[in-house]
Every structure is written in C-alpha cells, then in structure tokens.
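Practice problem: predict the structure.
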Amino acid sequence: MSEWDSGDTGDHGYDGGTDYGHAEAGADHESLNQLHEVNAADSNYDSNFGVYEQDSQSAESTSFDQGHEVSYSTPAGVEYHESDFTSYDHNEVNADHVFAAEGEEHASVSEYSELEALQARLDSTFASTTQLHADGGGAALGVASN
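Answer:
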C-alpha cells in the first residue's frame, strides 16, 4: 500500500486567516495463488491355479483247468485210453490316468489425477482531499470535498 500526504499548506501568520489543505491517495494490490494437486494409483493382481489328477488301476486274472482221463482194458486184451484236458488262462490289466489343470489371472490398474488452481487479484485505489479556508472567523469547506 502506498500513500501520499501533501501536508499542511496553510498560512500560520497572525492575521486571522486560515488556509488548510490535506490530500491523501493510495493503492493496494494483493494476489492469491493456490494450487492443489492429487495423484492416486491402484493396481491389483491375483492368480488362481488348480491341478487335478486321478489314477485308477485294475487287474484280473482267471485260470481254469479241467481234465479227465478214461482208460480200461477188456479180458480179451483190448485197452482203451482217452484223455481230455482243457486249460483256460486270462490276464487283464487296466490303468487310467486323468490329469487336468486350470488357471486364471486377473490384473487391473487405475489412476486418478486432480488439479485445482485458484488465482485471485485484488486491486483497490483511493483518493481523499480536504481543504479548509477561513477568513475572519467564517469557515467553509472547499469544492473538492463536495
């Protein structure tokens, strides 16, 4: 803020006449700057994996044997021989293997930014003048104050 004062310009003699003048002027300048900034980020990651496995085995074994034999002889000297033999074998093995896998992944990223700015300027000026003229006891204000 600046001010200017002209001071007293009156006549200080003893003649009874009074002159007085006062002037004041000024200016005021102010400014405001404000800045607000917000930055934010968020990131997420997750994974989920699964493995499934199954084994099964079976075995079977079958064995079958059957036989018979017939023999005889007659008094006349005749001999008879018969033999019958059956053999059955069966072997079986089964093996199964099941394998399965699954998986998933998720990722996300988000960002946020905000900027706020405030700027203000205040300017003011003023001027004031006062004059007093008095001649022989009568006082009057000058035109500048009207």
